[in-house]
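Project outcomes to date are best conveyed with an example. Our students and postdoctoral researchers have been running inverse folding experiments weekly, and each run begins with a structure described purely in tokens. The record below, which covers 146 residues, was selected by the lab manager from last quarter's runs and is presented without edits.
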């Protein structure tokens, strides 16, 4: 076997505090937050002069993680158009299973999130929606039915 697990997904943000607040409201636990810089990180990501702050958040089951990074240098590059629509090439969303989609949406809206479309029912299996959070991050929510 070549893969043991998916460890984390990285999301680069401008406002780390807002992104951490959004994902902790969603139910992730903040594992830690620290500055990251030095030759080792420059070599990994192929950029010179890297200075960033990173926050690692863990899903309640302990198996999934979201890594949030805010670059102080070099200056981050913005995708266009902003916010990018759901059909833009590249990673577009992260999906989370939730117990009560209505409750989660209300709590995220209070943090400035917005529904991308609407909450829909997929057969008798799921209720689903996309929510756009800080930095235009799209988060999918899935509530299992039955």
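After processing, the design step wrote out the following sequence:
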């Amino acid at each position: 076997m070549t893969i043991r697990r998916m460890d984390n997904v990285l999301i680069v943000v401008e406002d780390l505090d807002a992104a951490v607040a959004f994902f902790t409201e969603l139910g992730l636990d903040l594992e830690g937050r620290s500055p990251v810089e030095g030759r080792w990180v420059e070599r990994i990501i192929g950029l010179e002069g890297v200075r960033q702050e990173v926050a690692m958040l863990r899903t309640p089951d302990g198996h999934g993680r979201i890594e949030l990074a805010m670059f102080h240098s070099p200056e981050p590059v913005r995708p266009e158009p902003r916010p990018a629509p759901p059909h833009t090439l590249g990673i577009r969303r992260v999906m989370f299973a939730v117990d009560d989609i209505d409750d989660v949406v209300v709590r995220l809206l209070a943090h400035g999130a917005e529904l991308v479309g609407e909450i829909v029912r997929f057969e008798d299996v799921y209720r689903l929606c996309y929510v756009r959070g800080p930095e235009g991050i799209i988060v999918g929510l899935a509530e299992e039915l039955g």
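The two ends are 34 Å apart (CA to CA). The first helix runs from residue 16 to 26. The training component of this project remains on track.
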